[in-house]
Specification:
The chain has 373 residues and is α/β, with parallel strands linked by helices. It folds into 2 domains: 129 residues, Alpha-Beta Complex (Aspartate Aminotransferase, domain 1), CATH 3.90.1150; 221 residues, Aspartate Aminotransferase, domain 2 (3-Layer(aba) Sandwich), CATH 3.40.640.10. It is 40% helix and 15% strand. It has 14 helices and 13 strands. The strands form 3 sheets. It has a 7-stranded mixed beta sheet, sandwiched between helices. It is globular.
């Protein structure tokens, strides 16, 4: 076998993204426009209009190297949230920042603690880099067992502790008091607070906690509320001393001029974010009401994100069977047993989206329920 630095790079678990409309359309005889994609938590209203204008304007700079630190975007983020530019790191998506954090703050063999289930990139990137994921199973109803989390973080001497708020895949919201407890107990452990979906909670999130805890970095993305998943832009905010090693370890020109321009403009598009969040909040309630009449499926309550979990209650079905049946109706969700370690075979994750899309989902589940009896 070809030599690799870590055998897991060959044998390990790959990331499983949501299926594309084009794949499902070709497989099941739909037009791409007829396929309802609810497996990637994308913005149903599309990209920020202000970002589109800025990206088009950046094309005149394609012959020039961009700022290696994404300076324009760092300054804009700092101004927006009340920090200094040297407290900001930018990446090609939040996932690149996660990779840099793992490489910068944990050595090969070091432990990294996370809830289970969790965003799979945490453990996949850790394993690929020779770090060791340490899991803390969530409680009943996807409750956060904070005492057990802190105990595990300390006993494992974890170098990094991941928290996702709201949690993926359940959408549950962790309290600020619990986040503070983890930060206060962490000592030299770096706490990574991933707030990719924070806009949909209608809260300010935990970014202000960076001022209180030097062992905290807060991550956010432009992929969700801003609608820029295809542009690939994300960032982290922490103490200036934490940002220095991240700047030094990231790929030198990791963000191009179009990414920087589009993301910076999106930060000014409060109307696009407000409209998106209002629709998501309304449709969370709508789909909960529609699903309440089902017998074979249950919407796991209290999601504060732009997705929610569907529990399969009929023993004749599991997550994979339901996922495959939904594809026949032109509806894409995520099979939890494939996408989220520890979630098991009873759950699927679905986006919250426009009302016609929610109706397609619930109508398809209703028909699947009827067929299995």
């Amino acid at each position: 076998m070809t030599y690799v630095s870590n055998e897991v790079l060959v044998t390990g678990e790959p990331y499983t993204p949501g299926l594309s409309r084009f794949h499902v359309a070709a497989e099941f005889g739909f037009k791409p426009s007829e396929v309802v994609k609810l497996g990637s938590a994308e913005n149903p209203y599309g990209p920020s209009p202000k970002a589109l204008v800025a990206v088009a304007g950046a094309f005149n700079e394609l012959d020039l190297y961009p700022s290696w630190t994404s300076e324009k975007l760092r300054v804009k983020i700092a101004e927006k949230y009340g920090f200094e530019p040297d407290q900001v790191i930018c990446g090609t998506g939040e996932t690149e920042v996660i990779a840099c954090v793992i490489r910068a703050f944990a050595k090969a063999g070091d432990n990294i603690v996370m809830f289970r289930p969790c965003f799979p990139i945490y453990h996949i990137f850790a394993e690929n880099e020779g770090r060791v994921p340490v899991y803390v199973d969530m409680g009943p109803g996807f409750a956060f067992p904070i005492d057990r989390y802190i105990e595990t973080m300390k006993s494992s001497n974890a170098r990094i502790a991941f928290l996702t708020n709201p949690h993926s895949p359940s959408g549950q919201l962790m309290s600020e008091a619990d986040i503070r407890r983890v930060c206060e107990a962490a000592g030299d452990t770096l706490v990574v607070l991933d707030e990719a979906y924070i806009h949909f909670t209608e809260t300010e999130g935990g970014m202000a906690l960076v001022r209180d805890y030097k062992n905290l970095i807060v991550l956010r993305t432009f992929s969700k509320a801003f609608g820029l998943a295809g542009l690939r832009a994300g960032f982290g905010i922490s103490s200036a001393e934490r940002i220095v090693p991240l700047l030094n370890i990231k790929p030198t020109w990791n963000m191009g001029c179009a990414q920087v321009a589009g993301a910076a403009a999106a930060l000014d598009d409060d109307e696009h974010v407000r409209r998106t969040v209002a629709m998501i909040v309304e449709m969370r309630g709508y789909v909960a009401q529609r699903m309440s009449s089902l017998k074979a499926f249950r919407m796991v309550p209290n999601s504060r994100s732009n997705f929610f979990l569907i529990e399969t209650l009929n023993p004749a079905l599991d997550s994979t069977k339901t996922f495959e049946e939904l594809l026949k109706f032109g509806v894409i969700v995520k099979d939890g047993s494939v996408s989220f370690k520890g979630l098991g075979k009873r759950y699927l994750r679905s986006d919250v989206s426009l009302q016609p899309h929610m109706d397609r989902l619930v109508d398809a589940l209703t028909e699947i329920e009827r067929r299995v009896g």
